Amino acid sequence: MKIMHRRIFPLIVLLLTAVSANAAEKPAEVAAASPAKAAPKVTVAVLDFSANIPGNPELGQQVGETLTATLSGESGFTLVDRPALARTLQEQELNLTGIVSAEQATKIGKLVGARILVTGKVFVLDKQIFITAKLIGTETSLVDGIIVKGEKDADLGGLVMQLSEKLAKRLPEAAPKLIAADDLALDPIPGLKKRLAALKLPKLSVSVT
To answer: pTM of the full predicted structure?
Structure first.
C-alpha cells in the first residue's frame, strides 16, 4: 500500500501543476467559457407607513405607494404587489404599519416571498416633520435605516420624494448585508467544475499492481 501511495502522489502533483499552468496561460478563454451569471433579483415588500399628521389620514399609505413606484424602476429588485400584500396580511389578521418586530418580518417574508421589508413612520417632533424608513432583512432580522426631515410647514410631497431617492440609492448598498447568503454561493465545487471544464487537461494513466 505504501508503494502505491508513493507512485500515485507524484502523479496527482503533476496533474494539479498542469491545471494551474493552463489556467494561468488562458485566463481569457476561461472568462469566455464561463460568463458571469446575473445575480438574482431581490424581492422587496413595502408596507404602509404609520403617520400621525393631522388632516391626512391616508399619508402612511401614500408614502408606501410612492416608495413602491420609485423602486419598481430600479434594476435588481422585484416589488411585491401591494394589493396582494394587503390581502395576505388581512388573511393572516396582521394589521402592520410602521413598527414591525423581527418575528413579524420573518413571517411576512415567508408569506409573500420577500427578503427585505421596507416600513417606517411619519411624525412631528417639536417644530419639524420626520420621515423614517426601516429596511429589514426577513431572513437575518438585520436592519438599516433612512431619515429625512423638514420644517413643520414643509411640503410633505417633497419630503417623501427625498426619501424615495435615498431609498433607491441605499437599498442596493444595504441589500447584500441584510439578506442571507445563498448556500450555493458558499460552495466552491460548482465554480471549480466550471473553471476546469474550459481547460485542456492532460491525459493520465495509472497502473497499480
So the answer is: 0.66
